[in-house]
Design brief:
Length: 117
């Protein structure tokens, strides 16, 4: 994909999906193929990113709240149903991760990413 195509796709994702699209655009820029609003047997994911043989199940948290153990366990279960690696993205300075959630994320193999606007 050329640079112009990547920039165009990032812009379209952000226009159509807002913050989730903006985060997905970063994955497109990194060379991933992205499918937005992916439904699993356990619930909806923000998007799924695929590159080579690697499949990522990504959930984006935007709300200014403390993210607890339940959110981490939910993304792990959703990712397990499609055999993907779980990634929880905290967008902006608002969402915080509790200490208990950090421990559960380490235990379940959930990758935590912070994206600043």
């Amino acid at each position: 994909m050329t640079l112009a195509e990547i920039v165009f796709q990032k812009k379209k994702l952000e226009e159509k999906y807002g913050v989730e699209g903006k985060v997905a655009g970063l994955y497109v820029e990194a060379g991933y193929d992205v499918r937005m609003g992916f439904n699993t047997g356990k619930g909806r994911l923000s998007f799924v990113a695929k590159k080579g043989g690697q499949l990522l199940a990504v959930d984006v948290v935007v709300a200014s709240k403390t993210v607890g153990r339940d959110a981490v366990e939910a993304i792990a279960e959703k990712a397990k149903t499609i055999n993907a690696k779980p990634v929880l993205v905290l967008y902006g300075a608002g969402p915080k991760l509790s200490d208990e959630a950090k421990a559960v994320a380490r235990e379940l193999g959930v990758e935590i990413r912070r994206v600043r606007p």
